[in-house]
Every structure is written in structure tokens, then in C-alpha cells.
Amino acid sequence: MLRRGVAVAGVAALLAGACAVDDDDEPDDGATDVAEGGEDGEGDDEDEEDGDSEATGETDGVTFDTGVTEDPCPDAVNPDNGCIYLGVLSDLSEGPFAALGIPLTAGQEAFWQRVNDEGGIGGFDVDISTYTRDTLYDPQEHSARYREIEPNVVALAQTLGTEPTEAILSDMDADDMIGAPATWWSGWAFDENDQGLILESGYSYCIEAQIGLDWFGENVAPPSTVMAVGYPGDYGGDSSAGAEAWAEANDAEFAGWVETAPDAVVGSQDAAIGQVVGSGADVVVLAVGPAEAAAIVGGALAEGFEGQFLGSVPTWDPALLDSPAGEAMTAVYRHIAPWEGIDAETPGHEAIRESLGGELPANEGYIFGWVWSYPIKAALESAIESGDLTRAGVRAAVDGLQVDYEEILPPATFGGDPNDEAVRTAVINQPDPEASLGVSPLDVGVTGATADAYEYTAACA
Amino acid sequence: MTELISSGLVRGMGIGSTYALLAVGFVIIYRATGVINFAQPALMILGAYATSVFATGVGMPFPVAVLAAMAVLAAVGMATERVALRPMVGRQPFAAAMVTVGVLTVLFVVAHRLIGTQVRTVGDPWGLERASLFGVSVAQVDLAKIVVSLVAIGAVGLFLARSRLGLAMRATSMDQEVALAQGVNVGRMFSLAWGISAALAALAGMLVGTSAGGFEAITALVALKALPVIIVGGLDSIKGAVYAGLLIGIAEALTRTYQPRYAEWLGANVDVVVPYVIMIVVLAFRPYGLFGTREVERV
Fold first, then answer.
1. Do B94 and A98 touch (CB under 8 A)?
2. pTM to 2 decimal places
3. Which range of residues forms the domain containing residue A324?
4. Number of domains in chain A
5. Of chain B residues 142-201, which have a CB less than 8 A from chain A?
6. Looking at this predicted complex, what is its ipTM?
7. In a designed cystine with A298, which of A208, A277, B212, B213 is the match (CB 3.0 to 4.6 A)?
8. Does residue A279 sit in the same domain as residue A355?
9. Interfacial A residues in 302-361 facing B (CB < 8 Å)
């Protein structure tokens, strides 16, 4: 009987641990009452209750409804402006990517603050704080929180994670809700996967792996055996597919994809380390979390592994330089990034630094959040220009949308042929204790023969 | 053979001795109070955090930092018992166990607040260094885990067996009313049990935090692996906790080392389920665990 009790309580303990949410990280719900269109805000309560706003408004020839008000935003920078509400579904407390999600959201807030400081967009300020929600990188939570904020926002400034985003895609489609992903899954480039709703920026994990291996082959030594280590799903799977495609195109041996999971799930990375060491690979492509990446790199080197590592964007955290694996990371790990780090000399980077006021963010997530905001801004501007700021109008603006990233990335066009439009450039970084965020660029604007020639006709994984 | 010793036995004993350390903490509280303490994972990660603060923040010598962290967590454990568990004396053990689930939730939130989302390190001296054991290269940290855990468990065992307080704790665990009649301050024994258990959890947290990639708040969930260990060893047996911890640690390590090579068809991360497979097998033959006391019920 007692043992049965222990088992039941064990499950309860697991659930309690998983559900322990830091409510203070969420915005004050008290500020979330009014977010519907209408000149006087009437009908808001009803709209929130049934979750299906039909209230419409018009100002200066721009039609709007859900998620846009003629009333100013809470704590408005421009009190005479109306307000555009954007939602944020992120990992802000206990999920595996919270270390990225928090600065990422801060970067987006800074981006929109700058937009508001410059007068807003077409007579509207933009608010992303009121409908920011912590979804713990959990698809179910993501879906529940999406339903909660959907009646009040015109678009999603951020939807973090491939699987969580996939969990709300059908709802987004039904709601005409576009969003910026905090993920680099290759599937976002294809309408059959995202219905044209997801406005991605930069390369995909799949192309990232290929560019990294191209760079390694040209700058270090052509690898004869490559391996991938990653989390199951579209992050590790996409990266692994890229590594495999590279191996096939270059007559190299693909030593396989080692599926691992966060330390909290598997206890340690010993299984992955054993397989890496036994593989004899020249290069291992990592698509895991930062702590796990360090454990694998450090553990493999300590056990005599002589190959090198290429890490996907989320594998790096400046704190790793102080970990026991810091020295090993500096020696054999290279980080692939979709754009340059905080010290780069572009107008966009300059604006980022200005927004920080001389401080440094916790990691590159701040820059990711900033960059991912440009397409949503462009879509809103385009919708306003066409006089239709309804969700359907914003969605319609995506096809052919031109996005200027202030030189952080080359200008992008949405809605064309993915094979033509896909971003195939990257930055290769190396750990560097002297650098602002622990990495400095080895090579920028990196392209590769395999990545350039890759026929991008469907999601890699 | 080298791989068997280095990646199988020594690595497995290193992991297993950490499980044993956590499991002994569970057993001590269970023996004293009849309650399974589900807050142990949170105490463990707070111990890792305290070690990190003392060693890398304050700059204390590492052994001093570890002892200081154990002392702090012992105080936290005793305070937790006094505030949250003492009012449950006389209630059903299941109800008290559920209170510890609540304590886990609270302490887990505290741990998240303190640790944040960044990777932290405990500042241990072993790092990725290797040592030679009978001519086989093994990780120093694995040897450290074995030595530190077994020394700590041995010290607790000696304390329970030889000291007056230990005798009083054992008397309390056998029969609280009789112990009370003999002048034992039972409440104090409960408090002491929580203090020792939390200190052991802090030590285990330090050992878990020696991972090459450091630790995060979510690493606390690793401590839940001690649950199958206490079931396999027997809920009330310190000896059982040690043997079961080592057994499960070695079984995990051997699975990690050889399963991908010889039984790839089983899929990835099979080692994660190994503790539970062992638990089911043991329970099928020994329902009270390998060294647990058989419960006698009057009918």
C-alpha cells in the first residue's frame, strides 16, 4: 500500500515540479482588459468572453479590428496614437530554452520601444508586453495560452519553438494570425508547412549544418566522417538532416544521428559522449542546449576524441567559458550563427547597442529577438499602407513582403520560391573570453558550395 | 576491458554513489518519520547553488564551500520540517508526503529565482582531469563522487550506530511512543533527520553540479532517480540504498556504453528506463526491496 502511495506521490511530484510556474514573470493581467477595436472600446468584455472579435474601427483610412484600438497603449509613448497589440508566446521561466527566451523577449521589447520612440507605425504604437505569456516550451501550454491571447492580438511578435508553434498553426490559420518564430526550422520556408503565416529570418538549422560543414572543409580540413548529435524533433532532426545531406553531397561518411535529451531528462550526456568517441568522426554537429553541448564536448575530449564540433545557434551561452569544459570548447568548438554578434558594425547592430545603453545582454538571444521583429514590422507597415490592418489584411500583406533588416541580414522577400529566397549565409564564431558575449567571429558572410547547391524543395526533417 | 572499467564500472559507481547519497537522505527521513520526502530534488539543486555561490562567488576554498553549503541546507531542511512537517505528526504518512510535494514546488520556484536561466558551475577542482586506476585512465570526478559519497554515508552510518543522538534517532524510528517514554525528544529527532537528509542532498547537488556543462535549475529533476533506488534497496535500509544506488548506476552506465553498439534497435536513451526496469524486476521477487523490512500486518 505504501509503495503504491509512493508511486502516486512520485507522479504528483513530477507534475508539481513541471508545473511550478513563476507567475511574476508574466505581465499583469490587470492591464489586459482592453485590446479590441472600436472607437470607444465598447464591446470589449463581450469580445474577450466569446473570444471572437468582430468589432471594427477605422482611423485615417485604415480599417482595423481585433488586436488594434484607437485608444492608446498602456503607458503609451505617444498618447495620441492608437495601439497595435502583438502577442508573445515564449519560454520565460523553466523550459529548456528559457536562457534564450528571456533576453529574446527583452530584445523584442527594445525593438518595439524604438519603433514607438520614433513615432510608431501609421498612427499606432505597438505593445507586446500586455500579451506576453510563458509557455514553458510545452506545446499544450503554448496552445492554451494562444487561445487565451488570440482574441486580443493582431499578430504574434514571437512564438518560440518549432513543436510548440506547430501546435498552434491550424488555429493561427483559422484566425489569420501571422507570427515571427523563435526557431530556425527549415519547414517555415514552405507554405505547405506554415500556410504562409510564419515570418522566419535567417537560415534554417538544415542549411546551418551544411554551411558549417562547408566552412570546416574549406578552412580546417575536408571531413571524411561527420556525425550529428541532437534533441529529437525538428531542432536536432533538421540539423541532422543537413549534416547527412552534406555528407551525401561530399562523399563523406555520415556516422549517424545520436538522439539525446536535456540532462534533466537523461541524467547525463554519457551515452552521447560514448557514441561520439566511438564514431571516430572528424566533425560532430551539435543541436542541443548549452549545458549539454559543453558536457558532450568536454566529456568527449577527456575520453580521447580527436575530432571537432560545430554547434547550432542555441548551443552557446557565455557562461560556458567558466564551466569545466570551457577550455575544451575554446579548443575544438565552433559556433554557427545566422548573423553577426553584438559588436558588428551595421546600422541594425548600432541600434541594438543603443537600446542597451552600454549594458550587455545575458546572451545573443537579445539580438535574435530584435532581428526576428523586422518582418512583423514590415507586415504591419504594409498592411497600414494598404488601408487594412485587420488580421486578414496583415496576412495578405505577407505575400511579396520586402523586409529591410538594417544590414543585419540581406533584404528578404516573403512568398517567393523558397529555393530562391532561402538565406544561405552564416557567421562562424569561436569562443573568446575577451569578446562581449563570449564569442568572436572567425568568418562572416559565410556561404558554402553544398549549402548553395542544396535543392530546397521541402522541409529537411 | 579498459572501456568496461572506465565507462562502465567507475562511471557507473560514480553516478550510483550520488544516487545512493540521495537515497540515504530519503531513507533517513522515512525511518524517522515514516514520510517519503519528495522535496529532496529541490534541496539538492539548492545545495549545488549554495556551493556555487560560496566557491565561485564568495571565493571560499572548495571544501569549505561544500561544508558551508551543507550547513546552510541542513538549516533549510530543519526549518522546513519545523514549519511544514511538524504539524503533520500523527497524520497519515501519505498526507505528509503530499506536503513534501508542496515543499518541493515552493523550493523549486525559489531555486529557479536564485539560479535563473543561466548555466552555473560549482567550482570543483576535478574538472575534466583524468587519473590512472590500475593502469586504466578514469575521470577524477568519478573517483571523487565515489569517495565523497561513501565517506559521507559512512559518517552518517557511524553517527547513527555509535552516537547517543544516533541511538535516539534509531529508537524514534522503531517506536516513537516508546522513545518518547524513554525521554527522547522526538520532535528534535525529526528535525535532525531532516537536517542530515538536506545536508546529504546538498552534497549530492555539488556532485551533480560537477558536470562538464555545469548545472541549471532544471537539473534538480535528476534527483528523482533516487526514487527507484530506494524502492529497490528497501525504503528503510541505508545499506539497501547504497547497494541499490551502485547497482542502478552501474546498470545505467553499462547500458549507455554498450546498448547503442549491441542493441541499437532498442532506440535512443534506453538507459533512462533501466532504473525502472530493475525496480519492477526486484519488486516482482522482493516486494519490500532487496534489504527492506517486511511489513507485518495483523489480520
1. no
2. 0.84
3. 205-337+424-453
4. 2
5. none
6. 0.84
7. B212
8. no
9. 302-303, 317, 319-320, 322-325, 328
